[in-house]
Amino acid sequence: MQLTLEFGGGLELLCNSVKIHNINVDPQAEEEKLTMKHLLPWIRTNLIKERPEMFMKGDSVPGVLVLVNDCDWELSGQLDTVLEEKDVVVFISTLHGG
User: Fold this and answer.
1) 1, 10, 72, 12: which is closest to 42 by C-alpha?
2) Is the pLDDT at 98 greater than 80, yes or no?
3) Residue 62 CB-density burial (10 A; 0-12 exposed, 13-18 middle, 19+ buried)
4) pLDDT tens-digit readout, 68-82
5) 26 and 32 in contact (C-beta within 8 Å)?
6) Which residues are annotated with the PTM 1-thioglycine (predicted)?
7) pLDDT exceeds 80 at position 49
């Protein structure tokens, strides 16, 4: 499945300062559909180059605004959000130092 991932608010620094990633990822064998629950560990393993703990804690991404096709993932089921071909997923850090 082809997806576009965008990182902002400082999260791009965890991905070698690359903001936009066009990726191909398939659902896990036992799943028919790809969900955010499966995408997040894939991102941690394949895109995050340093300090993965700054991106994920447990199964989720605290302090990160997540948009799927410009819709807040809290409105579409968070980890249970089903992804479709050519979806755009945006991650924006809401944590800032002072």
Assistant:
1) 1
2) no
3) exposed
4) 999 999 999 999 999
5) no
6) 98
7) yes
Computed on alpha carbons and rounded to an integer, the radius of gyration of the chain in Å comes to 13
Task: Give, as one character, the DSSP assignment of residue 14.
Answer: G
Give every CB contact of residue 71 below 8 A, 6+ residues apart in sequence. none
Please write down the HEC assignment for all residues of 26-74: CCCCCCCCEEHHHHHHHHHHHCCCCCHHHCCECCECCCEEEEECCEEHH
The pLDDT value given to residue 65 = 96
Q: Is the pLDDT of residue 52 over 80?
A: yes
Q: What mean pLDDT comes out for the span 56-67?
A: 93
Count of Cβ atoms closer than 10 Å to residue 31 Cβ = 12
Lookup result for tokens 């036992």: 30
Q: How confident is the model at residue 97, as a pLDDT? A: 60
Nearest to 55 by CA among 20, 1, 13: 13
